[in-house]
Amino acid sequence: MTNKPLNDTIHRVTQRVIANSRDGRSRYLELMERERERMPERSQVSCSNLAHAYAGADEDQQALRASTGPNLAIVTAYNDMLSAHQPYYRYPERMKIWAREVGATVQVAGGTPAMCDGVTQGEDGMELSLFSRDVIALSTAVALSHQMYDGMALLGICDKIVPGLMIGALRFGHLPAIFVPAGPMPSGIPNKQKQAVRQLYAEGKADRAQLLESEMQSYHSPGTCTFYGTANSNQMMMEMMGVHVPGAAFVQPGKKLRQELTRAAVHRLAAIGRESDDFRPLARVIDEKAIVNAAIGLLATGGSTNHAIHIPAMARAAGIAFDWNDLAELSSAVPLVARVYPNGAGDVNHFHAAGGMAYVIGTLLDEGLAHPDLLTVWDGGVPAYAREPFENDEILNWRDPGPSGDAEMLRPASEPFQPDGGMRLLQGNLGRACFKSSAVERERWTVEAPCRVFATQHAVAEAFAQGELDRDVVVVVRFQGPRANGMPELHKLTPVLGVLQDRGYRVALVTDGRMSGASGKVPAAIHCSPEARGGGPLALLRDGDRVRVCAVTGELSTSADLAAREPSPDPQAELGVGRELFAMFRAHADEAERGGSSMLALSGL
């Protein structure tokens, strides 16, 4: 099929992003060029410095000393509590062997933390989650600061980890980089069954033992969680931007194909190093078109709303300005071509089997709905990512994925599930917010009702248990923004609000906190900016005020006279679980639309 010309809206948004980024992008590229020029050749570095760098290299010492090939850095987010990252345990030793096959060397430059939002969900530690992205970026910078490397392999998968690795790596964008995933765990019990047990537990109709058994049948082995939340949305975006080996996103751990894809990543990274004839620095791979492609993929697949925060933050690290106006306008042109749980019945394994990312990228390119002409880490640009990997006589190869293997999960962009991408910008006298309409039935896109105001999700659960929310209601959960408490995800609200909705009430959530890709079927205006802390509009609301949430008109407003009110006082930050150590992050964080980052705000990016 001949690809159609680029969609007019996508072209217009891209040109606006380029124009708005002109100064920042120019400064960034100038810095990367200076960094490339001033980065010392290893042969010119002090012998004492080199001895320290080579002392632990064992059998690679002589190759490093002779400087006969590229030396590649691994920055790893391995730990074995996080199921998605447990498979990384053996990666470095295997990658060293595969590097030697092409005359290269590999060293683990450093590690980053990797917390699991699923473990901290609803607990105090969740308040560190968003800021862990800044810590990961800083850890990546520390790892790469030794300047002993010709390329970087970035081992990370989950929620804040990939954006953090990307932000840190982009500040070393004079080097090439490849992201190396590990794949999703096999499918567990059906997602609807898991969701049903959660709601039964919320209603007191299932006990804790039943709930734990259900959850452990869902999350049961090494690999990424299989629902289409932030972690799997990360992997989708890395394909859309061309920083994976094509098709690497959703091949399960332990498969021979998974191993061959990682081997190919090492070989390719050696081939595009700074001394090669095919030098592909990350600074040139991640440009304005790549950021737009990431957003397009997010919209086309109904991905995590967390990326309304992460995409602007990653863009800033590359000198690119991208905001919610850009995301909303792209959403008006990009159709929804995938329904993956929680937007559909099947999980990412079913998605991958039905054609996965190769199918999605192919159909978007066919309809002129993605930029094909990126400099990717792999030859062939974005069209190379419209092919799926397979082994033929133990040789890694790629092929056309063919038509969708499941029309209930994947459809062509010419016949989509819905004509837009389902990520809408709401605005009004309560500020600006994101609304993920792709997960919500259209008749629930508009909710207008008296509000009930809370400062914590636990208070919502208590009010629900007391029967105080059995009515049409807009639940407002405020003081959940970056400066208030680190902007935790509020998944404890999902079963409670889902039960109210199932009882026939008109229910919506309004919050300056996060909900992510697992937010589900309840209409929610999230990431409200300005946040309540410091006097944002949500701090002016009172119980009973009538609030309107409308994804049809893009409205987030109240009929109350806010101008006549004083804001509710900011609550004191809680101590414990290390939260006090993150006071600087909270104090200097910027708004969610700019990425919710203190590190980027303070660095002037």
UniProtKB/TrEMBL annotation:
**Which reaction(s) does the protein catalyse, per the Swiss-Prot or TrEMBL entry?**
6-phospho-D-gluconate = 2-dehydro-3-deoxy-6-phospho-D-gluconate + H2O
Q: Where does [4Fe-4S] cluster bind?
A: C158, C225
Cofactor requirements of the protein: [4Fe-4S] cluster
Superkingdom as given in the UniProt entry: Bacteria
The record describes how the cofactor is bound as: Binds 1 [4Fe-4S] cluster.
The pathway that the record names for this protein is:
Carbohydrate metabolism; Entner-Doudoroff pathway
Q: What is its EC number?
A: 4.2.1.12
User: What keywords tag this UniProt record?
Assistant: 4Fe-4S, Carbohydrate metabolism, Gluconate utilization, Iron, Iron-sulfur, Lyase, Metal-binding
> Has keyword Iron-sulfur?
yes
Which one of the record's GO molecular function terms can you name? phosphogluconate dehydratase activity
The record's annotation in InterPro entries points to: 6-phosphgluc_deHydtase, Dihydro-acid_dehy_C, DiOHA_6PGluconate_deHydtase_CS, ILV_EDD_C, ILV_EDD_N, IlvD/EDD_N
Which PROSITE patterns does the UniProt entry name for this protein?
Answer: ILVD_EDD_1, ILVD_EDD_2
Q: Where is the Dihydroxy-acid/6-phosphogluconate dehydratase C-terminal domain?
A: 409-595
At the top of the EC hierarchy, this enzyme's class is lyase
Residue ranges of domain Dihydroxy-acid/6-phosphogluconate dehydratase N-terminal in the record: 70-379
Q: Which PANTHER family match?
A: D-XYLONATE DEHYDRATASE (PTHR43661), PHOSPHOGLUCONATE DEHYDRATASE (PTHR43661:SF1)
Q: What does this protein do?
A: Catalyzes the dehydration of 6-phospho-D-gluconate to 2-dehydro-3-deoxy-6-phospho-D-gluconate.
- What NCBIfam families is this protein classified in? edd (TIGR01196)
Q: Which family does it belong to?
A: Belongs to the IlvD/Edd family.
Name the UniProt record assigns to this protein: Phosphogluconate dehydratase
**Which lineage ranks, top first, belong to the organism behind this chain?**
Bacteria, Pseudomonadati, Pseudomonadota, Alphaproteobacteria, Sphingomonadales
> What gene, per UniProt, encodes this protein?
edd
